[in-house]
Known about the structure:
It is a single chain. With 454 residues, the chain is an alpha+beta fold. It contains 16 helices and 10 strands. A 5-stranded antiparallel beta sheet has the order 6-5-4-3-7. Strand 4 (304-311) and strand 5 form a beta hairpin. Helix 3 (44-76) packs across helix 5 (96-115). The radius of gyration is 38 Å and the shape is elongated. Mean pLDDT is 76; it is low at 1-17.
Amino acid sequence: xxxxxxxxxxxxxxxxxxxxxxxxxxxxxxxxxxxxxxxxxxxxxxxxxxxxxxxxxxxxxxxxxxxxxxxxxxxxxxxxxxxxxxxxxxxxxxxxxxxxxxxxxxxxxxxxxxxxxxxxxxxxxxxxxxxxxxxxxxxxxxxxxxxxxxxxxxxxxxxxxxxxxxxxxxxxxxxxxxxxxxxxxxxxxxxxxxxxxxxxxxxxxxxxxxxxxxxxxxxxxxxxxxxxxxxxxxxxxxxxxxxxxxxxxxxxxxxxxxxxxxxxxxxxxxxxxxxxxxxxxxxxxxxxxxxxxxxxxxxxxxxxxxxxxxxxxxxxxxxxxxxxxxxxxxxxxxxxxxxxxxxxxxxxxxxxxxxxxxxxxxxxxxxxxxxxxxxxxxxxxxxxxxxxxxxxxxxxxxxxxxxxxxxxxxxxxxxxxxxxxxxxxxxxxxxxxxxxxxxxxxxxxxxxxxxxxx
Length: 454
């Protein structure tokens, strides 16, 4: 008689590693089951069922080739359908062969159960259950947006349902529980790691869905300022993800107190090595709290001029008029000089300098300049433009024209250019001249140059 195989978690609770005899007995048990399964495949009816399954798989592939292009063409004509419905169709189209195979194999199982003994369709039933479970896992995991997380969950679920349908889940659990390492009074087995990964992944997915729903509700609330919306969303996400990881690890039986010293040492190392990262994180929180910069603000930082697209935990995304997106660290926004064109209000005043000839009446020049600026789109009339003399130059009377706009995100250079063009047209229509320096060059012949040299 073989020695009794321990149940999962027994050795972990006792803090002892299973002996090689138990692992060897478990290995022999699994090998024996595999050999028995291979022997059953050699029996006539099992071989027939295996051949039927392969034929059904070929038939599903043929149906996929026949109807795949037609379904894709039909999908192309579905204009105006909601995005979620089109995504469902795309997922179904990609799994079309699996859907055909599941339908064919279950139909075959039902027919065989009606015309022959149930034992002669047992293997096909197992194949049908596996195909259905794998197809369900493949379709449901498409809801996970992260490619890496989707792959981990998908393959993990495939392995689990396969072990459950083949009825070898307990043997696999004992095998995984027998592989592990000990840290003082805590033992970490491969089974515990797998359980922790599955539970934490499920809780993280739930936390992600919950955080998205919460973020949508917060962002739709007009009573909360944009900066506070970002701060609340970030804190909510941090709290939900942290709670999911903590609860997941505790639910699987991992003693977090045993990792306190190790986590403390890691924290000290990270504190020295990631000073800039921590500084940017703290700076981001300060920016959100003091509301100095918020999404939608138009800022200037050095040579960068644009509007805040998003505020992240480490950086702020600034989009310029030419489509470039600068990722500026939060620390630079705190320690550097930042011009916020829309900090307290949305109004922005622009200044233009120009000069006219002394022969022109300055009173008339000021009136014409103001009227020209008022005729340009985007220039505000409730904050009317003004024009002042700022000095008497060598060849011109110098003026400054000031006007207001309320949409700096539409650009500053283009509105300045439009006002300059309006001034040009107005001055040309009213006979006002804009002076420019003139130089005279005298060319001397060789005799004159010699006389000048003497």
